[in-house]
Amino acid sequence: MVDLRLVKVIQSALSSGENINQIRKNLFNKGFPPQRIEESINYMNTSQKQNIPHNHSTKKKIIIFGSIIFLLMLGIIIFLFVFSENAEKVTGPISLGVKITEISERINEGGKINFKYSLINPTTESSEIKVLQEVKDSTGKIISSLSFEETISSNFDRGKFGEIDTSQLSSGDYSLTVTISLNSFSSKTNEYFKILGNPSEFSNESNETQNDTGEYVPPAECEFHSDCDDNNLCTTNSCENNECEIQQISPCCGNGVCESSESPSICSEDCQEAQISSDLTDAEIINLAVEEASTNSGAASQYCASIEHETNKDSCFIRIAYISENSALCSQIIEVDSKDDCYLSLATLDASVCQEIINPIKKVACEAVQ
Fold first, then answer.
1. Strand 156-165 to 172-182 pairing
2. pTM across the whole model
3. Hey, what domains does the chain have and what are their CATH numbers?
């Protein structure tokens, strides 16, 4: 019968690096019979040979299992790659954009609002989108809406023009919202505008924002651009950080002054074609300007602007400004004292002109006549 303890001793010796002949000799010297030694060695060798197919089977299983894992991972990578390509095509419209770049912020009741908006598609795919234009009142209620489809080509950033009929809108504050959508993705922008009432309403509204001298005083706080409206076509009104910002527009077409950068082709309202003969003296031109001032300040302004002599030109503008009651004409005067005199002459009609006077004594005198 095989001595298993002797088999373990032989295996241990082999593991420690001894060769089989040395092991035989050592065991024989220790008194183990040669037959038992050989039986144990043969048993050990037989067991190892029987275990070899088992080891090969384990390695085979490991290789098969590893191959399956590899194929699964390869399949997942391919799926993610294909999905990401399709997802890019589907989700590309997320980067579509829209913004209103221009809009008439103030318009008379019954007029039309013109606006410009920009459609943006930075992707490489053309998109068939839906465009929705909505007009809402100050409470957020939708007053009117218009929807249509539009194709935006790839790498597109271009302005589009729109128009809103306000004939069904009463005076008040409104907002325009433009929304573009594709599938479940959308982008929108909005701007505010104001519908002005009839002229009598303008006067009432204007009086509420004027001080005792008739000068416009913006509200202490604002929410919309329309809150800062001073009903002056020669100013821009905006609400920034809840405060009104009012800036003068120069040149301003419609103020009755044919300013240096204006011409009949640019602003026919202010710059009327005036037939000025080169034979006329400065005095004769001034007389022509005075005759036109009360009915056509634009033509009168052209007469004054044609005078080359600086002092005579200033005198001409002072006279037509007073006759036409148009303080904007004073801005065309070159000499500072003459310009102050022009504003001072109109102080009883418009208190705001005192702010334009440079000379402190004349400014005090201007404020005193209110």
1. unpaired
2. 0.34
3. 4-70 (no CATH), 96-196 (2.60.40.10), 199-248 (no CATH), 282-368 (no CATH)
